[in-house]
Amino acid sequence: MKASQDLIAFVADLQNDARIAAQTAEYSHGVGFLDNSKFAGLMAGCRLLITKLGPFGKVWDEMLQPPEGRLLSDLEKIKGVLDTISDALQKGRLSTFEELVGAEVLGDLLEHAEVLIAAKYNLAAAIILRAVLEERLRKLCASNNCTPTNSRPTIESFKQSLYSAQIIDKISVKDVDWMAGVGNAAAHNLPEYKDEDVPQLFQRVTAFLVRFSVA
């Protein structure tokens, strides 16, 4: 996919809209709440972006679903995803769908997650790491002819298929469970999410990619 300048500019506009929305935050008991119209407009733009990206939007589709609330913490996650998409488009990393889920691009996403962690954007980093894990599990299933039969497979179904095919062992199953748990808590803003888990998540996802490489 050769990104058009119009698409790159559209993402830049969304990034600017996210910055504007952040400025509307009002705090109550230490929690930041965004202006409803600004946040709703941003989310509408994000859904349009997924449509414009076509099959390449699949990686980010779930991460850019409108959240239930209008919390500043939700916006930080969205900003991280938009930054990743912008970087991928500007550097021409969406050449083919296979490339999107390949080792090179996953490495780029890992690098971006590491930068986010260093900048204390742990929530956004955890969302990206969850996507990296899911894509590696998907690719492992495909390369080992054990892709789940359900229409919308999840990390859980990929994991079960790989375990049934004896590609991963019980220790790896537990590792995937922990990584997915941290990523899901971040993606859905669950109470059990902890910023301090994210650096370890980065290390464990990286180790998993090295151990379970794909051709």
Based on helices, strands and strand pairing, what is the structural class? mainly alpha
Q: What is the H-and-E element order?
A: HEEHHHHHHHHH
- End-to-end separation in angstroms reads 22 Å
- Cross-sheet strand order for the largest sheet: 1-2
Global shape: globular
Please state roughly what percent of the residues sit in beta strands, choosing from under 5%, 5-15%, 15-25%, 25-35%, 35-45% or over 45%.
under 5%
Number of strands: 2
Main β sheet profile: 2 strands, antiparallel
Rg computed from alpha carbons, rounded to a whole number of angstroms: 17 Å
The number of distinct structural domains comes to 2
Number of helical runs?
10
The chain-level mean pLDDT equals 86
Report helical residue fraction: 55-70%
* Unreliable runs: 96-101
Can you put this structure into words, describing what you see?
The protein has a two-stranded antiparallel ribbon. Mean pLDDT is 86; it is low at 96-101. It has two domains: 1-100, no CATH class; 122-215, no CATH class. Helix 6 (103-118) packs antiparallel against helix 10 (198-211). The chain has helices at 5-22, 36-53, 58-61, 72-90, 97-100, 103-118, 122-143, 155-164, 170-187, 198-211; strands at residues 26-28, 31-33. The protein has ten helices and two strands, in the order αββααααααααα.
What are the salient characteristics of this protein?
215 residues; mainly alpha; 2 domains; two-stranded antiparallel ribbon; 10 helices; 3% strand
